[in-house]
Amino acid sequence: MKKLKILATATLFTVACAQASATVKVGFMLPYSGAYGTIGQTIENAFKLYVEEQGGKLAGQDIQYFRVDDESNPSKGPDNANRLIKRDQVDVLVGSVHSGVAMALAKAAKDAGVTLIIPNAGADAITGPLCSKGVFRTSFSNWQPGYAMGPVAIDKGYKTAVTITWNYAAGQESTDGFKEAFEEKGGKVIRHLTVPFPTVEFQPLLTEIASIKPDVVYAFFAGSGAVKFVQDYAGANLAANIPLVGSGFLTDGTLEAQGASADGLLTTLHYADNLNTPRDNAFRASFSKRYPSNPIDVYAMQGYDAAQLLDAGLKAVGGDIKKRDQMHEAMSNAVVDSPRGQFKLSAAGNPIQDIYLRQVKNGKNEIVKVAVEKLADPARGCKL
Amino acid sequence: MNSKSRTLLMLTLVIVIAFLPMITTAYYTTLIIKVMIYSIFALSLQLLVGCTGLISLGHAAFFGVSAYAVTLLSPEFAAGNLLWLVPVAVISAMVYALITGPLALKTKGVYFIMVTLAFAQMAYYVFHDTKLGGGTDGIYLNTRPELRIGDAVLLDISSNYSFYVFTLGCLIFTWGFLTILMRSRFGAALTGIHVNEQRMRAVGYSTFGYKLTAYIVAAGFGGLAGVLYAIKDGYVNPELLSWEQSGIVLFMVILGGTSRLWGAMIGAAGLIFLQELFQSEAIFGAFAVHWHLTFGLTVIALVALMPTGLIGLPKQLSKRRGKKKPSPTVRSATVH
Amino acid sequence: MDVATYLIQCLNAVQYGLLLFLVASGLTLIFGIMGIINLAHGSFYMIGAYMAFALQPLVAQYLGGGFITTVLVCIVLAALLGYFLEWAFYSYLYTRDHLQQVLMTYGLILVFEELRSIIIDNDVHGVSAPEWLSGSIQLGDLMTYPTYRLFISAVCIIVAVFMYWLLSRTRLGMMIRAGASNREMINSLGIDINQLFRVVFALGVALAALAGAIAVPVSSVYPGMGNAVIIISFVVVVIGGIGSIKGAFIAAMLIGFVDTFGQILFPQVAGVLVYIMMATILLFKPEGLFKQG
């Protein structure tokens, strides 16, 4: 009982403090610990960088930050979201990296009528059947990079493919995207292999691939799984006979650990390390000046764009966050001048963007060409 | 304290809790709802751990199965009916207990811990690896169910406060039911099994039947907690069935203390309060990011200093030093 | 599946089983002899791996040694750490019930993981295998097998043989076995049981750290790597029978095969197969395959 009373007093105190200022409150719900800890920090840094570049204000409004470590744990997702929505009473939510956490966040944001900008998580459903007016994504849908690899594989003359991923939603969506494009153009996915998440014991499936002998292997893994898969694939010496391709997350943020075993890998993503456009160069210079020890990657770019998108929305309503509908309207019509290249959002709130084909060279994901121009997620099931 | 003043105290407590949302913010109302749901969950596990001496590391399975059941059975865009949703969801958890219980109860001690874990992992992988419940991304429960008979809505829990009171009611029901259960002949038998199962068998009790019944009842209340949890957030995910979730609720039970039924409630409140405290940037500043460290150290300290859990604390404090602490393995298992 | 592929899959299964055995052997030793449920065992695996990653440059600089030297340094440090932890934390747990052991060792996991995050970072890091082990041998027409994986298997077999010898042929092994079956007895024989336990614990930690350190070139180091092995290690211990090294070995092999062939033949239920197997075995053998004497 006593504890509850202490909590109650603490609340009144926080509320009193919170209402004293009239600023736009941004809540970061990102992973700050565990496997995605670095990614969460990178996104936050990049978001703040953009705000600092605008003189610390967006549309004349001071920005106040709150943050919660979501631990990449979906079962804590709703509670963590409530910390920001109900306790800190934020106006805008930014998060998250993990798809399941983003699902929880999208639901909580929708129920509370808070604007949500997703700077990474790619779950198709969020901008599909669960799409909503106040939910935006500055990253990608899992379907997008997968789909873009289809035509690339066809152009290389591959006829048969094996897809491999963890047995979880993101992997399924990515490999489904690849399969859709690959088979539309006459290829055939002959086997879909899965490993229980988050197991990293790939050897049995590599043996299986060697016995199936497809023309190409499409893989979706991320983080430590991506490191291990690429290393094992090279270790089994399969690469010489059966080329490995994948979604960009196979080689993003993992190249240092993968070392030489990643050399030459082809992947598709909405960003690359050497776009060499004035916009991207400016972003990279600014980011590395402000955060010298933080690597610049796709996550930084997505976090930066989350701030740009919010800026566009706030400007349209003159900084008055209360005019939420108008702000959402402006955000969904905004042209974001992203380091990846300009993009607009689809009706469902997902970027319509160029997907690049990249190749690993000298420890970088270097651009080869644009794999698919202005690729929009089909947003199946979205009624917006 | 005599029983009259105890009843009075309980009544005051319930009334205070019922009106607490009037003075707290929405966030703390939600937090207290969470505490109450986990109290139900922990109470249900206490029936096994504290009352019967069965340590289960798979209790989240029942929580999760019911949470998924209520979500999957609710209509997509309309309010479901609590009248049949809750019983069906709770019964589905009890059915799972009925199937796995007889197998698990064949083993003892550490092996029982591991078998319950195994059965929970099975349920976990069913939701994790199949599309039944949306796979790893989980699924939404879009509209909170209501209590209807015919077309008449008897209870609407769509507002936060009505749901708060509803949860409080469920908690009181759970606590009352289990208290009465433990005072019955059945409860006495469970206590007997906890203290000395051999002797119980020797005097002619079929201990297996008692243990199985306890296991199924515990699953039912664990399921009730799961139902409330699903309704609270409107989002269920395979992680609700993970072994970490089973670990957390077991942790609550131990933290509170296993010698009294209500220790589970103290443990649930204590654990959630500790997590809230250590994660608070207002108190710990930037170090709040490393809250696992402070939390972990606190856990270690609690185990080292409080072998009987939070409810044993007053007694422990009143006892002066120098006296040998009673060994926890021989402590009595009476539950009032 | 043709014969060649089938044989390679068997090799994969054995190899995975051996690595599981290495992690689980220390756990079963601590569990069986000291009666402690040590959830933090996975953390020792993690600590071994991170030490191998972090110490390699230092070892190269100051001792002039390569990967093998690093692993040896890791083992020694881990044993010292184990000795200290037993004295500082675990020695309080012998008189406590299983619940409190679970709780305290859970607290230790949180502490170790967070310290790892503070001292190193949250990124994934790779360590390359030593030059002389980085080759591979041809298996089948397309596939080759990395020599390093065979090296891991060899180490695991050596450890298995060593453990067998230690427990059944040496005076220390005799004391350990006696201490496991009757604590009071060995105490009355004038053997310092506390000291004995401390040594056993150090040995267990060293085994876990060894597993972590030699696995690094194929597994890389990443946050949460300890938690990834702890549950499966417990499954190994329980199937094998608590405290039985032989049981742990056989259980690890069984899991290796079930897991490997499960992934290929029943991919949709691969995750759950091991648990079904455990439940089935415990139904017929409620105390594991080889209940320790």
Please tell me about this protein's structure.
The complex is a heterotrimer of chains A (384), B (336) and C (293). Chain A is an alpha/beta fold and 384 residues long. Helices cover 41% and strands 22% of the residues of chain A. Chain A is built from twelve helices and 15 strands. Chain B is built from 14 helices and four strands. Chain B has helices spanning 3-19, 26-52, 60-73, 82-104, 109-129, 160-183, 185-195, 197-202, 207-233, 243-256, 263-278, 281-284, 291-305, 313-318; strands at 139-140, 146-149, 152-156, 235-236. In chain B, the strands form two sheets. A two-stranded antiparallel ribbon of chain B has the order 1-4. Mean pLDDT of chain B is 88; it is low at 322-336. Chain C has 293 residues and is an all-alpha fold. Chain C is built from eleven helices and two strands. The longest helix of chain C has 32 residues, at 3-34. Chains in contact: A-B, A-C, B-C. Chain A binds chain C through residues 33-38, 167, 193-201, 203-208, 210-211, 213, 223-224, 227-228, 231-232, 235-238, 241-242, 253-254, 256-259, and chain C through 1-2, 4-5, 8-9, 12-13, 15-16, 114, 117, 121-126, 128, 136, 140, 142-146, 148-149, 218-220, 222-225, 228, 259-261, 263-264, 267-268, 270-271.
User: Got a strand count of chain A?
Assistant: 15
Radius of gyration of chain A: 21 Å
Q: Name the poorly predicted regions of chain B.
A: 322-336
Q: Output the helix-strand order of chain A.
A: HEHEEHEHEEHEHEHEHEHEHHHEEEE
Secondary-structure element string of chain B: HHHHHEEEHHHHEHHHHH
Looking at how many chains there are and whether they match, the oligomeric state comes to heterotrimer
Distance between the termini of chain B: 13 Å
Could you give a quick summary of the protein structure above?
The complex is a heterotrimer of chains A (384), B (336) and C (293). Chain A is α/β, with parallel strands linked by helices and 384 residues long. Chain A is 41% helix and 22% strand.
Features:
heterotrimer, A: 384 residues, alpha/beta, nine-stranded mixed beta sheet, 12 helices, globular, disordered N terminus, B: 336 residues, mainly alpha, two-stranded antiparallel sheet, 4 strands, 67% helix
Give me the secondary-structure topology:
The complex is a heterotrimer of chains A (384), B (336) and C (293).
Chain A: H1 2-18, E1 24-30, H2 37-53, E2 57-58, E3 61-69, H3 77-87, E4 92-94, H4 99-112, E5 115-118, E6 135-137, H5 143-155, E7 160-166, H6 169-184, E8 188-195, H7 203-212, E9 216-220, H8 223-235, E10 244-247, H9 255-258, E11 266-269, H10 278-290, H11 298-316, H12 324-333, E12 335-336, E13 343-345, E14 351-361, E15 364-375
Parallel strand pairs in A: 1-3, 1-4, 4-5, 5-6, 7-8, 7-9, 9-10, 10-11
Antiparallel strand pairs in A: 2-3, 11-14, 12-13, 13-14, 14-15
Chain B: H1 3-19, H2 26-52, H3 60-73, H4 82-104, H5 109-129, E1 139-140, E2 146-149, E3 152-156, H6 160-183, H7 185-195, H8 197-202, H9 207-233, E4 235-236, H10 243-256, H11 263-278, H12 281-284, H13 291-305, H14 313-318
Antiparallel strand pairs in B: 1-4, 2-3
Helix pairs in contact in B: 2-6, 2-9, 2-10, 2-11, 3-4, 3-5, 3-9, 4-5, 4-9, 6-7, 6-9, 7-9, 10-11
Chain C: H1 3-34, H2 41-62, H3 67-88, H4 98-119, E1 136-139, E2 143-146, H5 147-169, H6 171-181, H7 183-188, H8 193-219, H9 225-240, H10 245-265, H11 270-284
Antiparallel strand pairs in C: 1-2
